[in-house]
Design goal:
Elements lengths: L1 H4 L23 H12 L8 H13 L5 E6 L11 E6 L1 H14 L11 H4 L2 E7 L12 E5 L19 E3 L3 H4 L10 E8 L8 E10 L2 E10 L2 H6 L2
Antiparallel strand pairs: 1-2, 1-8, 2-3, 3-6, 4-7, 5-6, 7-8
Length: about 230
């Protein structure tokens, strides 16, 4: 399914203006910004009707599973650790979470109610902070790079895919019903769905001045090809 989502799809003919999980009067302008950015870019459909129906049905069954990718200690390390670096919210998973939230609220979600931004061909990546000591540095930068590529200290930073937008506001994922995955959540970055491929690391990082000169403090995660085969 992830392979099919990476193909170009028809643009949505009509866009719902009601945000799925929050009544319009309660929606603050700041909360609208991710959606407005997506609408301005005219997002492509990420799920067909059959896939939407499957996602809604999955959410009605209970809380969806988490799509976790694991941490890599540093550039060039061949094997990720067992420690999570972040979680992935694919279009399927976002719709499933939304259906789960609506089911819990006693207002079952129908396929026709799913707004285009929720099922668009992008992925939300929630990454942990690079280090407990970096919470004072603000939102980290995020890039998708080759496993042997460092984040210190070329300018511009070498990258394969850049995020479309990012935020440190956890309400972005709460809007479609997902729970905040980490107590040390550092950033939520939205990428084109093509980022879900083997051979890429997604890195949240801060460049800092260390005792031996500039260095980079990272939260580096890598996708397991076996996970990509089963994720929807």
């Amino acid at each position: 399914m992830l392979r099919s989502l990476s193909l170009a799809a028809p643009v949505v003919a009509a866009i719902m203006v009601v945000v799925l999980l929050v009544e319009p009067p309660a929606l603050r302008p700041a909360d609208r910004m991710p959606t407005l950015r997506m609408l301005a870019a005219r997002p492509e459909v990420g799920l067909d009707r059959t896939q939407l129906e499957a996602a809604v049905a999955r959410g009605r069954e209970g809380a969806p599973e988490s799509y976790v990718f694991n941490r890599v200690p540093s550039a060039g390390d061949p094997t990720p650790s067992s420690e999570p670096a972040g979680v992935v919210y694919t279009p399927f998973l976002r719709v499933a979470w939304a259906a789960h939230a609506r089911e819990a609220a006693g207002r079952p979600l129908s396929v026709d109610e799913v707004p285009s931004w929720l099922a668009s061909s992008v992925v939300y990546l929630a990454l942990r902070r690079p280090s407990a000591a970096t919470d004072v540095l603000g939102t980290p930068a995020v890039v998708a790079i080759r496993p042997d590529t460092a984040t210190c200290c070329l300018d511009p930073q070498p990258t394969v895919i850049r995020p479309l937008w990012m935020t440190d506001n956890p309400e972005v994922i709460a809007r479609f019903g997902a729970e905040v995955p980490f107590s040390d959540l550092g950033v939520i970055a939205v990428f084109p769905i093509e980022v879900l491929q083997g051979g890429l690391d997604v890195v949240a990082y801060h460049r800092v001045d260390g005792p031996d000169g500039p260095t980079s403090v990272e939260m580096r995660g890598r996708f397991d090809p076996r996970d990509l085969e089963r994720w929807r």
